[in-house]
Design a protein that fits this description.
Structural class: alpha/beta
Radius of gyration: 21 Å
Order of helices and strands: HEEEEEEEEE
Number of helices: 1
Distance between the termini: 53 Å
Number of domains: 1
Helix content: 10-25%
CATH superfamily: Cupredoxins -  blue copper proteins
Length: about 120
């Protein structure tokens, strides 16, 4: 009976270790994007189809917007705070993103591309 109990306990520990390893593998990749007057850095973001990512947006100067219309993304980016966008893209392509809160002359150049690779 002790051997059976020890085997059951050992099997349970192996299963828990496997679950923990899978959870660690499933952690999203974090992509940091900085917004400042008329610029996103980086202005080109590469993601694989089906890859779980979190885009962490910060602003160095003022309130900005981050909009990717084709993917249904729209958030405000406040200075001194981090705005997180959780994303697992299901379609391949190039998707334009832009600031949609007017931030002065040059605002129309505050754009970038999110590229979803196969």
């Amino acid at each position: 009976m002790r051997i059976g109990l020890a085997m059951a306990l050992g099997l349970a520990l192996l299963l828990l270790a496997g679950e923990a390893a899978r959870a660690e593998d499933a952690a999203p990749r974090v992509i940091k994007v900085v917004a400042k007057k008329f610029d996103f850095t980086p202005s080109e973001i590469h993601i694989k189809k089906g890859e779980h990512v979190v885009i962490e947006l910060t602003s160095t100067d003022r309130k900005h917007g981050f909009k990717v219309p084709e993917l249904g993304i729209r958030v405000d980016v406040q200075p001194g705070a981090t705005t997180k966008v959780d994303l697992t893209p299901q379609k391949v392509g190039k998707f334009a993103f832009a600031c949609d809160i007017f931030c002065g002359d040059g605002h129309e150049d505050m754009t970038g591309t999110l590229i979803v690779d196969p």
